[in-house]
Input
Amino acid sequence: MHLVHRGFDTIALSIQANISPELFELLNAEREKAEEGRAPVPFSYGGADFDLSPHGGNGYRFILEGGPLDVRWFIKKPNARDPWGIRISVGSTLLATQGLGYARAYIDKTLARLGVRFEAHQVSIARVDFCVDILAPDFELIPEHFVIHSHTNRADYLSAEEDIRSNGKSGRFTSVTIGKMPGRQVIIYDKRREVIGNPKKAIWWDIWNSNLEKDGLPPLDASDASQSRVWRVEVRAGKDLLKDRWQIRTWAQLDAMLGDVVAEAFQKVRYCIPDPNDSNRARWPNHAIWDLAAGSSGEDLMELRSHVEPDKVKHVHRAEHIRLILAQVIGNATTLAALEGIQESELIDYMAQVGIRLSEAVRTDPERAANKLSEARGRYRFIT
Output
């Protein structure tokens, strides 16, 4: 077993402030365009660039995203009776590649560009996820090996053709979740399996390999599960746990107490090696994977990062989009060939003819083609 990543996976916070009437009017006008087109539209203000969604949600009028670094901004219509007008969710890509310090500076800088002014006490931390990724190809997850309080909820997932809750069917367990949000959750799951199944997660191979290179070890072979299976142990601290149990609301309080929050989680929930001669589960020893995860969380947590540069993130996202779109183009052209009665021996020549037909379509209506190209450039401007 080897540690290949540790750091923050999600941070969610609210800001006790509202946007200006001017910014609201601009956002409202652009959202109408997004609604008409049923797709996000580019939005820039004060030097900050976003994609504005055609819809809101959960009481927020606007939802903005800032590119592949996985930060989402939820903004309410200004209301003096509801001063908590902004919510921010920072995802794993930014936190894993740049660290929490960078994320906090990015939030402050972006809010300043939007004209939002606030003090330190006007920040309310709503959720913090801390994760540890461990390369452990031979590890087998057995839900019954967890030692938890009898009243604590546990959900197990096993792999079949698709993930289903365990109900006695055979299969390899790929995930176990202990507890419920917005309290405390502790999760262990097959992270490699998630990354393989989600093109948006492809950057994790670079994150893991960057850390392996730093340790003088060779990169992972993504095609070979027996050599590259990575398990994630994740502690999620929700609003109720942070505020009620630990009195954590501000950044300063999080800095001072997060290590204790994570340490307590690893004590309250343990993955163990059963002792057949001892019926008292509380005395069962920790499994090595649990000790490794818990031990790695005892160090300074604030500035953890993998040192994968932002340009690398863009490159990986762009390459994955190109791969997927090319596969779709080939699939559609092959389907077209079948519909037009093309035989297998004629397929290569047919593909060349499809290229000519595409060129002719552009030549016939160059204005429409130019507009489509411009729209695509705008849609993917963060990764090109």
In short: The CA atoms of residues 169 and 216 lie 42 Å apart.
